């Protein structure tokens, strides 16, 4: 009769046969989300920020009052005198889609040519958050980390995928917010993946900090924050937006 020790030794020396089922996970099942019928339209779990009807989801960054940019024929146009606008709600990690159009008759040069910006994680007046630049960069030059598709003053876009003024263009962005320790130390930096007109222009970029015009970017502690659209002060004709929605991510 084999001893218990011998049985254990035999079991230990018997090779384990791997099976496909060993690495199959059956639960929990991901929630079902119904995609839109047309690419760019909101899926079933999206928070609609602008669908052409009103600005109920937006406020002025000047005083927190209702946003006052004009809407005409379902299109939102920047009012530079009214200042920036931002979402009433705050978000942490998310996917956002928006469409923007530089006026066909845009004038100006460099940064003064249809300038605006999509700001991720803005916490209030004077706090710009993290900017994905909007600009006419179709055969018009400026500093590369300030052209359309750049993470402003940090990273130029991987490619220039802009269309000519007068055409609608789209941003699709995956935003991962920074995380901070209880003492305020940075635990993990913000990250961004972005597509312009369906083309990857930022690929899991690790941000150096919040957007600043002069000097080097740095972090300051924040949690969930608003999404902001910029009314840039340059003299060029204002740009327009449509079809803005966001999906919160875990």
Notes on the structure:
- The chain has one helix spanning 4-13, and strands at residues 47-50, 58-60, 71-72, 75-77, 85-87, 94-101, 116-122, 130-134, 168-176, 179-180, 186-188, 191-196, 199-206, 226-229, 240-248.
- It has 250 residues and is mainly β.
- Strands 1, 3, 4, 6, 9, 12, 13 and 15 form an 8-stranded antiparallel sheet that branches. It has a 5-stranded antiparallel sheet with strand order 2-5-14-7-8, with no helix packed on it. The chain has a two-stranded antiparallel ribbon with strand order 10-11.
- Strand 7 (116-122) and strand 8 form a beta hairpin.
- The longest helix is centred in the first third of the chain and has 10 residues, at 4-13.
- The protein is elongated.
- The relative contact order is 0.23.
- The model has no long low-confidence stretch (mean pLDDT 90).
Major beta-sheet overview: 8 strands, antiparallel
End-to-end Cα distance: 58 Å
Percentage of helical residues?
A: under 10%
Q: Let me know the average pLDDT.
A: 90
Cα gyration radius (Å): 24 Å
- Which word captures the global form? elongated
Structural class: mainly beta
pLDDT < 50 runs, ≥5 residues = none
The total strand number stands at 15
Strand content range: 25-35%
Order of helices and strands: HEEEEEEEEEEEEEEE
Total count of helical runs of at least 4 residues: 1
Short description:
The chain has 250 residues and is mainly beta.
Quick tags:
250 residues, 4% helix, 1 helix, mainly beta, 15 strands, 8-stranded antiparallel sheet, 5-stranded antiparallel sheet, single chain
